[in-house]
Amino acid sequence: MQRPIPQLQNRLLAALPAGELARLSPHLSAVELGRGRTICEPGDPIEQAYFPVTGVISLMTLMENGAAIESAMIGPEGAFGLAAAAAPRVAQGRAVVQSPLRAYRIGIGPLHEFWLTSATLRQLADRHGEGLYAHAAQSVACNALHSVEERFCRWLLSCHDRIDGDTLALTQEFLADMLGVQRTTVTAVARSLQEKGAIRYRRGQVDIIDRSVLEAGACECYGVVRRAYDRLIPPSSQEVRAETAAQL
Question: What's the CA gap between 135 and 239, in Å, rounded?
Answer without folding.
Answer: 21
